[in-house]
TrEMBL record, chain A:
A Gene Ontology cellular-component term: plasma membrane
Top-level division of the source organism's lineage: Bacteria
Species lineage: Bacteria, Bacillati, Bacillota, Bacilli, Bacillales
Chain segments annotated as transmembrane: 18-37, 157-179, 216-238, 244-262, 299-320
Protein name: ABC transporter permease
UniProt keyword list: Membrane, Transmembrane, Transmembrane helix
Keyword Transmembrane: yes
GO MF assignments: ABC-type transporter activity
UniProtKB/TrEMBL annotation, chain B:
UniProt keyword annotation of ATP-binding present: yes
Protein name: ABC transporter ATP-binding protein
Transmembrane segments: none
InterPro entries noted in UniProt: AAA+_ATPase, ABC_transporter-like_ATP-bd, ABC_transporter-like_CS, P-loop_NTPase
Residues covered by the ABC transporter domain: 7-235
Upper classification of the organism: Bacteria, Bacillati, Bacillota, Bacilli, Bacillales
Keyword Magnesium part of the UniProt annotation: no
Amino acid sequence: MNKLVHNELLKLFRKKRLFVIILIIAALVPLFTYAQYQEVKTTREKLGNVDWRTQLQQEIVDTQNRLSSSRMQDDWRKYLKIRLAQQQYYLDHNINPQAPGAPTFMRVFVENSIDLLLPLLVMVVAADLVSSEASGGTIKLLLTRPVKRWRILLSKYLALILSVSFIVTASAVLSYAISGVVFGYGGWGMPLLTGFSTSGEELVTNNVHLIPQWQYILMEFGLVWFVCLVVGTLTFMLSVLLRSTAAVMGIMLAALIAGAILSNMVSSWESAKYLFMVNLSLTDYISGMATPIEGMSLGFSLIVLLVWAIGGLVVSFAVFTKKDVF
Amino acid sequence: MSQSPALSVKNLRKTIGKKDIIKGISFDLYPGEVFGFLGPNGAGKTTTIRMIVGLIKPSSGTVLIGGKNVQTHFGDAMKDLGCIVENPELYPYLTGWENLEHFARMDPSIPQKRLHEVVELVDMGNRIHDRVGTYSLGMRQRLGIAQALLGNPKLLILDEPTNGLDPAGIREMREFIRFLAEKEKLCVMVSSHLLSEIQLMCDRVAIISKGSIIRVDSVHALLAEQERVVWKAEPLEKAESLLREVTNVTRLQENLITLYDENQIGKWNRMLVTAGVEVKEMRTKLPALEDLFLELTGGEHIE
């Protein structure tokens, strides 16, 4: 099996697919870095000459005043205490919350690319894994070897998993390395709030707590990896079903973009939450953004995506091992 | 032929929807022979070959390669098989050598030195290290054969091996196929829609039309049986009756057709001439297989 995976990786590598993806990320990250930098600059200008420490101090005093008020619900009080601890940490460790370091940039980058950019890059690799063999005719040589069909498909899938891991790692490394030039490389230990959940219209803050940024980023990249793998698996299935790589890409592209559009539209169409493409923004659950449809949670989205991926795999293997190759 | 067959096809059928594509064909191939698989385009040659190599699942019937069933013992059966189905399609972005390495990795029983052997065998020289995208069709055909020979197969299946080659390439291919059968004792199955090709390189031939095999026989037997002489003579009736005394004669419009017999043909001619018949034309019918083919298939289109 190692040798089969070796073959698949060799082909991927020689088709320069991974190289192109690295190039795309390397081209986009400086773009985003510049945008982020401009934003920071504008915020700074708005504040004028006020030192950020003075401002943070002021915020802390505000929070303390609110906490001392007796007419306050317990969970809100708890939330404010956590906020206070966060602000105090920033002040103590001399961290300007308005001026992000490279880890913060990584975090923002990954949160914004989880539902479209990274799945698209994964799609580029996964789309022609099988369909290119069919359209190029090489599948005839591949399937007349003393190797069972399911092993050939499995080797391709393993190559896909490795590519997904590579793409996610590469985007992490590149976004850190490139943005660090502008923002500096520090800020791994910065505490961040997480643990939000929604119940009906309300934001539930009961479980909110602080975790260091490195842990936060690690969690987010884990989720990104999972999302990319699911999108990759579904693209892989289409690649088995269709001969034309362009058709595979077209369908997948339409699905992903439809997901982005639907997320803004479907709040009252409840059963849409079972579509894989509205469940891609897993990082939103960590940062506490509102969900597109009521009743969605991290666990729910993970399960929906998992079911789609397993379905995709079952279809891929069932079709590939049975189908007549013309 | 008392050897065990290299390939045994028994009652192979393929039905797609309600249409019978292949209607139950059977034949056996033996080591050391070149077997021609002849039929017009669309007769089912490629479908049959794809069923033999396991790309298409037969609706019924069995394929045994070296005695091993392709359906139930796929891996074992494939070890004895090398094939090119239709065009030799290899990875254009890899070099010839990398393509060979790629396919060698799929069968652990292939030693590294076998790669050098097959490159030597198909005489690729240094071009083997160029990207396949830069190869000519003839070069790709050679590489295709090299990859087919990697696993030391007992059976080599080549689908339209001379398609698209220039005359020199066709000749070379023909000699190479004969070489493989005679010197390496391979069983080679060659499909073609070109009669002349089959006639020149095959020992036996199966003629397939509309999904059925019409006839399997040695090329010699088919040709010998078929070689005829066409006569034009004046007066026709007299010539016909004279010839009828010595051989079988069929009259076709203004022509008389007799069997071709090298020893007799001169005597028959003298007999006609001495009897005062003016012989205007005598010719043997060529290529003979083509007529046979038309006769057998009832005039289906053939190139």
